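Shift notes (night). Ran Short-chain dehydrogenase TIC 32, chloroplastic while the centrifuge was going.
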Amino acid sequence: VMAVRNLAAAEAVRQAVLAETPGGSVEVMELDLSSLASVRNFAADFAATGLPLNILVNNAGVMATPFSLSKDGIEMQFATNHVGHFLLTNLLLETMKKTSRESNVEGRIVNVSSEGHRFAYKEGIRFAKLNDEEEYVISVRSSRFPVRFTFFEDKSVTCCFNLALFRYSTIAAYGQSKLANILHANELARRFK
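Came back to this:
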């Protein structure tokens, strides 16, 4: 089964695979990993086929895309590259276990990542700031140019500060999604040893 976002584009790939594998069978099913609803629909549709599942390869993804949020409000690279695969794996896990029991052959889950995990934000995965395009950081420092801030009518403070704006990094966001792939694979390996 090929899980694809674009059914029309997948048909050419399907035909090429069938041409190389006479007598083979390739099913094409729609799956948009950036949409949790699409992932759930795919998993339900796959389960309804009754097909066995021996190998799950989580390979689809996007790289260094401009900032955007998925339909579910998750940063697009993280939604597509990690959250979609994570949910898909969890939804198909019982089918894989059943296939393994019935066939007496151990299944495999392959999470494809990249060296891009090395470019994640310095703190790793920024869960608290995952969906932020901009982040303002105020740091207090000594200076001879004090500024008075009034927070409430009767509360104010005088200090000197730096204001820094950190913008979304397409590469660091990609890196954190790839780091999440590695952590997911490690946890699956730990749980199923």
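Strands lie at 2-4, 28-30, 55-58, 108-111, 134-140, 147-152, 155-159, 161-167. The domain at 31-192 is CATH 3.40.50.720 (Rossmann fold).
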